[in-house]
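We modelled the chain as a single entity of 336 amino acids. Its sequence is:
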Amino acid sequence: MANNANKKMLEEATVSVNAVETASVKQKSGKKTKFSEVAIVADGNERKSAFAKGINRSVNFKNVQSICGYIKTKGYRNAEVIQVVKAEDFLKNGDLSLVDINGATITNENASEYYIVLDGQHRVYAVAEYNQWVEENNENNLATITVPAVIAELEKGETIAEYINEINITKQEWNIADYVQGAANVHADNEFLQTYKKLIKSKENPNGFPISTLNRIFCGIQTAISQKDFSLLCSGITEKGKANKKIIPAYNLEIGEKFISICRDKGFTDKDIAKRFLISKFNDVKHQYSLEKAFEVLNSITPNDKEEMFNTRQNLDEQLVREKIEAIINRLKNNE
């Protein structure tokens, strides 16, 4: 049981840009409260906590509360170290943005006051809550906690994003959205990956699109890129196989974004678009006729056409979509 408790304590997710920037002002008893700064000690040096902006995943506050509760009853064991690196060593390159526990930007001028937390974000937030609880309710003269840490050693050329990805992949099973986000963080300048990161369906974006639909929209084929491919990209790998085939497939963001924009203009929700019925038929028309024809058909959908694509339960229906698109094609032919 003790091992299970320790394992639970060690299970960490990570902090995304939105989580860090909004976590600073959470709801507590109906009031907005900032987190207390947490002191971290590594190699005998004490610093404050910093987080890599936009790289890590969202804070699970249920997990934070669970860890905080554990600390209140069992204390904080010094063997439970977190992994950090010196902020100034990575901020100076200009390719990384850092924020403190309350979302404030960290600059080169004050970077030496911080450690970047690579593994242990939930414990840091839990200690912040615990320390604040001690300060507000210190009936038993309890001491606030300083978090013990170890300086992580990154491989030559390894980035913060790659290191964090490796930690999270080995610590807990990732889903496709995690791999997409991880790959986009490692390849921050890649427009294809950034688009997928923005649109992928995830816990943070429940109205997003599944990977198969995104592949159809931007690549024209359902199997264009897979979870395994994103896993390789998370590790900084960009080619695969004996032929060194590029992992990122052929794509066209302009066509994909135009398709989504027209569908939205026609009144379809992202939930409707995510079902793949519209994009599958769009691609069928494109292959049978031309891209120009496919967009002409899409633009010709009337409010009545749209309404007739939904079944009696008001759900977009695949068969009704196919029948209506064919009817629109015939209507356009008759008007020629």
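As a brief sanity check on the tokenised model: Residues 1-32 have pLDDT under 50 and may be disordered. Residues 318-334 form the longest helix (17 residues).
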